[in-house]
Amino acid sequence: MKKLLLILLLNAFCIWATADNSVATATLTGNIKDASDGSNLMGVTVFVPDLSIGTVTDEKGNYSLKDLPKRTLTLQISYVGHQTIIKTLDLAKDTHVDFVMKESNALINEVVVKGVTGSILLKDASAPVAVLTKKQIDGISSTNIIDAIAHQPGISQITTGSGISKPIIRGLGYNRIVTIDDGVRQEGQQWGDEHGIEVDAQRVGSVEVLKGPASLMYGSDAMAGVVILNPRPAAPMGQTLGNITSEYQSNNGLFDYSLNLEGNQNGWIWGTRYSEKFAHPYHNSIDGYVHGSQFHERAFNTVLGANKSWGYSHLNLSYYHLTPSMIEPDNQEDGSDKSYKKALPFQQIHHYKASWNQSIYIGRGQLVTLLAYQQNRREEYEESASTPGLDLKLHTFNYGVRYNLGGLKGWKLTAGLNGMYQRSMNKGTEFLIPDYSLFDIGTFITGSYKINRWTTNGGIRFDSRHLHAFALGDLFQRLSRQFNGLSGSFGTVYKIDERMNLRMNVSAGFRAPNLSELCANGVHEGTFRYERGNNALKAEKSLQFDLGWDYTSSWLSSQIALFCNTIDNYIFMGRTAEMVDNLPVYMNMQGDARLWGGEFSLDLHPIETLHMQNSFSFVNAVQLHQPDESKYLPMTPAPRWNGEIRYTFIRDGKTLDNLYAKIEMECNFRQNHFYKADHTETATPSYTLLGASLATDIKHKGKKAFSVYLIGENLLNRAYQNHLSRLKYAGLNPVTGKEGFYNMGRNITLKVDIPLTF
Question: Rounded to two decimals, what is the model's pTM?
């Protein structure tokens, strides 16, 4: 393993050292105007996805990008309230290009995404992809990045109070979803459902969610999909920028702030960010304050690198620290609890990450390499605030290399390999999983071909994973398992006309059982249960069919996405009749499953300033050949409808810019399809939540001085339990006499974002 990493490191360094002289440079300039009145547009983002660089237009609508390679590049031009423009330019010829942007509130699919097979236009992706921009994320009240994306059709979250969320895509979650943060596969204690994603939400520039088996470029665990967290673009050439953001939430007293400073001098970039967030217990109309739901989060990140005509090379260093208290039924108190201090029991998570990723032009394509190291330390303090009981330390080395080849008469090809090495150790006095080591390697080839009205893409991947668990007394036995598997995808998009597309895709996925599923044996405090593994588990294998249709016009956008997913050897945790230490015993089990469902969306915008959006998503998840009590898979999200009406009062005013008001409703239907065996789950009643928001940019001397957002959630203060809330099954609350805990009540959020220019 060390030899492989050393070879990759040396190769990447040699390429980087020699690439600077191999590519001729060009400068691209131009002007961008509004189509309606011909006025110059200031603040338009001009972005080059392949180089991860960009700029914004000045007060005269002019832009300039320097030190670009003299070759064919794709330009992405975006501005709030306007249709995104995608333009492919040959910089050997095109050095000055002007654009005219049309106003639109439509759900536009003109955006570059990474996709299953590499960078591709969203409208050309055969597999479904959801995209959230930074502006959309800013307009959402959340406590973490997964919370921010969980309102999209087909996407849900398993929550533990207000601070911890894990994504669910089309009814599947846990280790079936891979999270990519700035090109690196995020690896903490991913097997636990009460562990969040250790990422600073303020660093995220945009989010892409790939739905369905998407393991071709990202690893075999991506059976349910991939969450890609893209960083904010680097500062434009010759500029030093910064920003200050702050947020306050009324329900849990959450206060967060983030400070950022970055620069770009002649293509040499640097940046640093510090963020901090803390909250006291949240409250609702039934439980009052839920003791143990407070948390404290800190994060630091710095980046050094180069954005040059030959490509880019970035070194990222980050540290994330989360201290959440743990909610227990017998720890509740009557009255107010507004303490920000941690209280027993609590967890402490430290996550360190160093990554070096680069993309270099070689021939007709790009060579992309990645080296990363992560250390995750998770401690649980139950009886003492100084000595942890459970203490897990995880080391992860990530590696990857791929070559993207384009310009072959409609063909784009990608080939590569990636994987990781892990070593986990117990440092505490209590044990849930044994010490283990893991080596994972996968190789893949993907391609896309575009001709006339057809765009076809697909690929194949082979993965091999070796897992070795070490013995520990009578608690854990030595275990060594090897898992090999193939994954594949094939799909096509047919352009019916300029407004309408038809999509079809078939994907095969593979996932090896994780160490906890195989070997767990102990009390898992954060989940209110005693967990047991099953060392006879087989690898999961899935086959998913997707069918989609979309239509976009000047006043209407509509999408339909249907899927059917069959999974052999599906692994889930079910409750048994046994009790240990007054806790129910949960056992990892296996069976065959079938999931089917879909997402529907309809956007109406009869005038440019009025936007009406509706979406509906559902999934039916069953275990085949089982009695009624164990027929349905546990933790399946309820059907959900989202509605939104947004009106833009002022766009591009002298003092106010992009001033809008929004009213939204979220209706979660009754969940009657639940895993009944041994009272693992119960039915969840339907509920409807009402929200509203008001936001605007404030200008000073023609430039944006700051942005402000006022967001109200659950305005009617509805007491409800989400079916995917783990606190719903936390046991009897002695204070209220009700089973479990309820979700957050009414919450008002105030956000401020102040850009800085030096």
Answer: 0.92
